[in-house]
UniProtKB/TrEMBL annotation:
This is Sulfurtransferase. The lineage of its organism: Bacteria, Bacillati, Actinomycetota, Actinomycetes, Micrococcales. It comes from the Bacteria. Signal peptide: none annotated. InterPro entries: GlpE_sulfurtransferase, Rhodanese-like_dom. It comes from Paenarthrobacter aromaticivorans. Residues 7-97 form the Rhodanese domain.
């Protein structure tokens, strides 16, 4: 929930999934940098002193671990968003697509919110 409750501008959220996954839906305001492209694109898209939070699909995907390592190797302060976009959605938080931003009802089995 740190990402959802963070002050705007205090960190940059990076979606590390492939293009088709990004197109399917992502966290509003996130930056899209697939893991393999982080070394080439990070410095052009994210200022060096920025706090970065990376995410991938969910708990069964280790893509954000590799992405966090790539950012750390470039000198960024980086964290992984545990649960990824799967738990973001399951908690009823907003999702952005080409159609706009929408939210679903929280899943009562996983949500941290009532």
């Amino acid at each position: 929930m740190e990402v959802a409750e963070s002050e705007q501008g205090s960190l940059v959220v990076v979606d590390t999934r492939r293009q088709s996954s990004w197109d399917h839906g992502h966290i509003p305001g996130a930056v899209h940098i697939p893991t393999a492209q982080i070394p080439a694109l990070a410095a052009d898209l994210i200022p060096a002193a920025t706090k970065v939070v990376v995410y991938s699909w969910g708990p069964g995907c280790n893509g954000s671990t590799f992405a966090a390592l790539a950012f750390a190797e470039l000198g960024y302060s980086v964290k992984e968003m545990i649960g990824g976009i799967e738990y973001w959605i399951r908690n009823g938080l907003p999702l952005e697509t080409a159609s706009g931003v929408s939210s679903q009802k929280p899943d009562p089995l996983v949500t941290a919110h009532a």
